């Protein structure tokens, strides 16, 4: 199955997020209210985007580290479909978030970090009900020019899928490099700046969808 396309809205203002989103919406499968957007605009961003897009999944990318019940409940009440936790959060915190997500028929995503990941830890996330893991090339590594996705990344995708997780890949992914994921079957591909900063966001999102269709047939 071809991966779905998620737009990451990590702008400073809601207006700057909505402008490209509304142009590209016909090609978008999932909306991410990014960490930067929520820090600057609060959960107003989730509420307003939910009101405009009642039928699309919305991720509140709040990267929960603790206070799991409180933060996740606020996000789901604002209209989020999914919330994110950092891999360094305690298992107790992640389990709290899963319990709240279940109340709202939502989903929990754990965002991997190299220093907080092991296969044994991933198994514990699965055991408490986490359904989704994010494999990322960090924004800071990307800015430093470390752009290659490595065999280690692809092995990680495979082992997570073998545990039953849905897997998202993210980190400045472009049309040109989508082909490197052929045969690795991520469930979701995130694109942020390549759509949001594009002169024509609809054309940029369409190009990504066309490439996804080409790679995964």
UniProtKB/TrEMBL annotation:
EC number(s) reported in the record: 4.1.1.23
SUPFAM superfamilies linked: Ribulose-phoshate binding barrel
Stretches assigned to the Orotidine 5'-phosphate decarboxylase domain: 4-208
MF terms in GO: orotidine-5'-phosphate decarboxylase activity
Alphabetic keyword roster: Carbohydrate metabolism, Lyase
Family annotation (PANTHER family): 3-KETO-L-GULONATE-6-PHOSPHATE DECARBOXYLASE SGBH-RELATED
Enzyme class of the recorded protein, top EC level: lyase
Protein name (database record): Orotidine 5'-phosphate decarboxylase / HUMPS family protein
Superkingdom to which the source organism belongs: Bacteria
Classification via Pfam families: OMPdecase
Lyase recorded as keyword: yes
């Amino acid at each position: 199955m071809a991966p779905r396309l998620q737009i990451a809205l990590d702008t400073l203002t809601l207006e700057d997020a909505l402008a490209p989103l509304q142009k590209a919406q016909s090609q978008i499968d999932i909306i991410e209210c990014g960490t930067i957007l929520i820090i600057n605009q609060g959960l107003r961003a989730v509420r307003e985007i939910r009101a405009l897009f009642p039928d699309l999944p919305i991720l509140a990318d709040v990267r929960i580290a603790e206070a799991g019940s409180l933060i996740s409940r606020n996000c789901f009440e604002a209209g989020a479909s999914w919330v994110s936790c950092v891999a360094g959060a305690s298992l107790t915190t992640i389990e709290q978030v899963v319990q709240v997500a279940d109340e709202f028929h939502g989903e929990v995503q754990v965002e991997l970090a190299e220093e907080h990941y092991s296969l044994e830890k991933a198994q514990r996330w699965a055991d408490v009900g986490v359904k989704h893991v994010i494999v990322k090339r960090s924004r800071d590594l990307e800015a430093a020019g470390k752009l290659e996705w490595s065999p280690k990344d692809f092995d990680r995708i495979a082992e997570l899928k073998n545990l039953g997780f849905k897997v998202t890949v993210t980190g400045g992914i472009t049309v040109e490099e989508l082909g490197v994921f052929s045969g690795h079957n991520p469930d979701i591909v995130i694109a942020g700046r390549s759509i949001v900063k594009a002169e024509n966001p609809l054309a940029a999102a369409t190009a990504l969808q066309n490439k996804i269709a080409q790679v995964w047939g």
